[in-house]
Design goal:
It is built from 2 helices and 15 strands. By secondary structure, it is mainly β.
Length: about 200
């Protein structure tokens, strides 16, 4: 095979792979009251147009205080050039829609539609809960909480980030060498633990 053909083939391969989306995936195992009850999968995909797409899907089934508890959470967040474009959050509990929130940028205003009504805000989020799974939050003062479409102040100490959201839930994230390893979510009926398994 000629040098020109090899070079042409490498150039074509480079062009094909440059236009393709690049993805990262992390998987966490969920535990409550010492029992494993489900998994959460988060993805970050860098699209050819420089959009960062974050997706989250968590599902699990457990019995807490003699009550069967089946939950599913889905989230999709889009950033471009460090600025939020849109986010959607859906939470289903025991087969019923418990909470949902959609945010989208319209000009310079973010429009929020949710199970709590319609509103808007202007401060552009640059770091949200979705970002924590793939980025170092040590320099961040506040995090955008997609579930409620508002901000929570961040407390940071060595290898640990903590914040309390507007719905009263305390979240703690633990890092090792800048990589998220485990989390604690303090909700009304129990503490949910998540540990990275992939």
């Amino acid at each position: 095979m000629s040098y020109a053909r090899i070079l042409g083939g490498l150039l074509l391969l480079g062009l094909l792979t440059t236009g393709a989306a690049r993805a990262q995936t992390k998987v966490f195992e969920m535990t409550v009251l010492g029992f494993k009850f489900g998994k959460m999968v988060v993805n970050r995909t860098l699209l050819p147009d420089s959009t960062e797409l974050y997706t989250l899907h968590a599902s699990g089934k457990a019995t807490v205080l003699w009550i069967d508890f089946v939950s599913e959470t889905k989230q999709e967040v889009r950033y471009k050039h460090g600025k939020l474009l849109s986010s959607s959050y859906t939470e289903i509990e025991n087969g019923k829609l418990k909470r949902w929130t959609r945010v989208r940028l319209e000009g310079n205003i973010y429009r929020v539609e949710s199970s709590k009504g319609v509103r808007s805000f202007t401060e552009a989020p640059s770091f949200s809960v979705a970002s924590i799974y793939f980025s170092d939050p040590s320099q961040v003062k506040q995090v955008f909480y997609e579930a409620e479409a508002n901000y929570a102040p961040v407390k940071y100490s060595k290898d640990r980030v903590e914040f309390t959201t507007s719905d009263g839930h305390r979240s703690v994230y633990y890092f090792r060498q800048g990589q998220l390893q485990k989390m604690e979510f303090h909700i009304s009926i129990a503490v949910v633990y998540m540990e990275r398994i992939a």
